[in-house]
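A quick aside before the break. I want you to see a complete sequence-to-structure record at least once, exactly as it would be stored in a machine-readable document. Don't worry about memorizing anything.
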Amino acid sequence: MKLMHVGDLHLGKSLGDFDLTEDQEYLLDQLLGLVEKQSVDAVLIAGDVYDKAVPSEAATRMLDYFLSNLAKRNVYVYMVSGNHDSDERLNYGSDLFETNHIFISTKYDGNLYKQTLKVGKDEADIYLLPFVKASQVRHFLPDAKIESYDDAVRAILDKADIDESKNNVLVAHQFVMGKSEDPELSGSESLGTQSVGTVEKIGYDCFDKFDYVALGHIHSPQQVGRKEVR
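That is the input. The structure line, written in tokens, reads:
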């Protein structure tokens, strides 16, 4: 089983008045080429799919092109929303997309979304955790003590029925840190004492039940805490 982990596509992003559409179309084609060359079975998209909550026509066209080409190749897609995305807009058509093995989770509804991926004799449970804030999770888990982003994510995972005897993969969009270090940032991010882009830190150890964690939000590829948290 081969999984491709991408995140923070920020489709529709521009640099001042400079339109990046052609550059982003080129990069999507590069990803599709890698999917074919490496015989990828599934693509994990870890949030901030669009650059703005109200995406441009060009941005929606690019996502349609990318997902359609993955579907034509019979590649499964597992996608979550990020803090830049509109839950409703990114979720539009998700029920229909599932017939083409495109699974989208954009809003936590009290249950951690799960799909089981089977490739030959290999099997993995893929969990989708869209970007969440503490206030959103309190609504569904009123009995849990939730005061921070970290509390919220831990409450969600504690409630989920995760079978640790299986191969478990999580796709999430949160600001995750290691034991005592902040992740390395790219030039497009600003770091506060406890947050990046108003998103608070959470500890990587809350993901101990997962064999691989496909994260978004931080733009520089790296491992966080352990090599399976990327």
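Two observations worth writing down. Residues 3-216 form a domain with the Purple Acid Phosphatase; chain A, domain 2 fold (CATH 3.60.21.10). The first strand starts at residue 3 and ends at 6. We'll return to this after the break.
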